[in-house]
Write a structure and sequence with these properties.
The complex is a heterodimer of chains A (about 260) and B (about 300). Chain A is mostly helical. Chain A folds into two domains: about 80 residues, no CATH class; about 170 residues, Orthogonal Bundle (MetI-like fold). In chain A, about 75% of the residues lie in helices and about 0% in strands. Chain B has about 300 residues and is an all-alpha fold. Chain B has one domain: MetI-like fold (Orthogonal Bundle). Chain B contains 13 helices and two strands. In chain B, a hairpin with an 8-residue loop joins strand 1 and strand 2. Chain B is globular. Classes of the chains: A mainly alpha (about 260), B mainly alpha (about 300). The interface between A and B is large, with 91 and 94 residues. Chain B: Belongs to the binding-protein-dependent transport system permease family. CysTW subfamily. Chain B: It is a multi-pass membrane protein. Chain B: One of its GO terms (biological process) is transmembrane transport.
Chain lengths: ~260, ~300
């Protein structure tokens, strides 16, 4: 018994650590079914009330819509710009490589509160109003670095022989890129886009500095937390969690099918 | 910079093309975006930091007077929050490392078929809102929550004591929220270790502890360095955990910057504080990378 215990100690530890990681997520999910009063803090009974009327609290679905607008726009632009930089870094020799690396690294090494404050200073100085456009600009800025790091890893791990083979078979540069390189890098680009969306969708600090009177979903939760967060916020949190899990599983299944097809 | 190193090491085997024009065309839009919306705002922040209130004393109006004493004043007035930020961030980083390393080790070497599942569980917090999770901790640790009532029932905690609104709950919140940023890089570096190296160490009569100390740990150092940076940097600038899980006695420098901007509308002080925070972090990071690079990495 004690031998089994010491042999599996690290596995038991890992299970406890994962429970710790999941505990607040369970709480968020459970309290979406709570028959809540103004403050959704104590368990008062099971109900589907919040799930049936998710948009009931004023402003909650509007803020969710804003989060999607900002999230989708900034994901598309940041993924495009970041992927281009990743290809330049991974595939070409050029002067200014270390400056480029520094410029990619610095936004990740700057606390969000500094990024938010500096953008707001600029928007104030140039008299551009805070709002969704300012927020989207900010999100693209901090997502680019994460896209570059993610896609660059994938570009670097490519076997250069595959591209050489394509050229040996008389494919020109564009054809090689489109038929060989791009499909091989695509999973990395997909992962980067998901990461960018998650970062944008969940960002609070930078958003709060630059959104003015408009609210995104995290801002809605923040403001509501002063009075009491309605269980509908937990419903949206739960839905996002389930959708993200479903996307990951779908990605795994598609990946496995592709592998099966090849072999 | 740790990440840049990792990236550089991976790239070396791909042959580089010469087409410089294509490279610059690919770089231009993204880098331009970063220059306009990251570098230029920092210049604006620097400019704002030396301004003083306009003679009209209108709220939010400031004129440039190059008053560099703003930095000294801002620091002196908010020393307490500065020290607190770095102490809390340091404690959270150490705690997160202590929790994440064994977890990452289990994932890399002992998980078997459960590896992907565990990886998914580690990133699961990314799929729910940061704020909702922090509010859930407020519930769990709150006066009406399970932790306090259990501890009170067992007589460990006196009946009127609380866990929230203390330094403990703020540090706990920081530790929890940045745990995935610690776990993932450590896991990535452990996962890259060639298992034959560990076997070779065993063949040379090293016991488990020696193998870990002499082989596994040094090889995982890049992940540890990346993970600690990815935890320490955001934790030291955070104000959400202090606000939701702490009391004004636990406020960090992020809380001060935020309230200077929005409640007090004192942009110069907020800008000075932001600059001091950024400069301090950069200096700490450079010292840390140097130390980790010379003493442990080589």
């Amino acid at each position: 018994m004690s031998r089994w215990f010491s042999k599996n100690l690290i596995r038991i530890y890992a299970a406890i650590a994962i429970l710790y990681i999941l505990l607040p997520i369970f709480y968020t999910i459970a309290f979406s079914f709570n028959d809540a009063d103004k403050r959704n803090i104590v368990w008062r009974g099971f109900t589907f009330e919040a799930w049936l009327n998710p948009c009931e609290p004023i402003g909650i679905c509007e803020s969710l819509g804003n989060s999607f607008k900002v999230g989708i726009t900034s994901t598309i632009i940041a993924t495009l710009l970041g992927t281009m930089i990743a290809f330049a870094l991974g595939r070409y020799n050029f002067k200014g490589r270390s400056t480029t690396n520094l410029l990619i690294f610095l936004p990740m090494a700057t606390p969000e509160v500094v990024l938010g404050a500096s953008l707001l200073s600029m928007f104030i100085n140039i008299n551009v109003g805070a709002g969704l456009v300012a927020v989207t600009i900010a999100h693209i800025m901090f997502c680019i670095s994460f896209v570059v790091v993610t896609v660059k890893a994938r570009v670097a791990s490519l076997d250069p022989k595959l591209e050489e083979a394509a050229r040996d078979l008389y494919a020109n540069e564009w054809e090689t890129f489109r038929r060989v390189t791009l499909p091989l890098v695509a999973p990395g680009i997909g992962a980067a886009a998901l990461l960018a969306f998650a970062l944008s969708f969940d960002d609070f600090i930078i958003t709060n500095f630059n959104s003015g009177t408009v609210n995104t979903f995290p801002e809605y939760v923040w403001t509501a937390s002063l009075r009491g967060v309605p269980p509908q916020a937990n419903v949206i949190g739960t839905l996002m969690f389930v959708i993200a899990l479903a996307l990951v599983f779908a990605g795994q299944v598609i990946g496995k099918r592709k592998l099966a097809k090849k072999s | 910079m740790a990440m840049a190193h990792v990236g550089a090491a991976e790239q070396t085997h791909a042959p580089k093309k010469r087409g410089k024009k294509t490279a610059y065309l690919l770089l231009a839009p993204g880098l331009l975006w970063l220059i306009i919306f990251f570098v230029y705002p920092l210049i604006n922040l620097a400019e704002t930091s030396t301004k003083t209130p306009a003679p009209t004393f209108e709220t939010g109006e400031f004129v440039q007077t190059f008053r560099f004493m703003n930095f000294i004043d801002a620091f002196v007035d908010n020393q307490e929050q500065f020290y607190r930020s770095f102490i809390y961030a340091l404690l959270a980083t150490v705690l997160a490392l202590a929790i994440a390393y064994p977890l990452a080790y289990a994932m890399a070497f002992r998980a078997g078929a459960w590896r992907n599942f565990m990886l998914l569980m580690v990133v699961a917090p990314f799929f729910t809102s940061f704020l909702l999770r922090t509010l859930a901790w407020k519930q769990i640790l709150g006066a009406e929550g399970p932790v306090v009532s259990t501890l009170q029932f067992l007589g460990i905690l006196p009946p009127d004591a609380t866990i929230t609104a203390t330094a403990f709950s703020v540090i706990m919140g920081l530790t929890y929220n940045f745990l995935p940023f610690m776990t993932l890089p450590i896991y990535a570096s452990l996962d890259r270790i060639d298992y034959r190296l560990l076997e070779a160490s065993g063949d040379l009569y090293a016991n488990g502890a020696t193998t870990f100390r002499k082989v596994t740990l040094p090889l995982s150092m890049p992940g540890v360095v990346a993970g600690t940076l990815l935890t320490f940097i955001p934790a030291s600038g955070d104000y959400i955990n202090a606000q939701l899980l702490g009391s004004p006695d636990n406020y960090m420098i992020g809380n001060v910057i935020n309230s200077r901007f929005f409640r007090v509308v004192d942009y110069p002080t907020a800008a000075s504080l932001s600059f001091i925070l950024m400069a301090t972090i950069l200096v700490l990071v450079i010292i840390y990378i140097r130390r980790a690079g010379t003493d442990e990495l080589v």
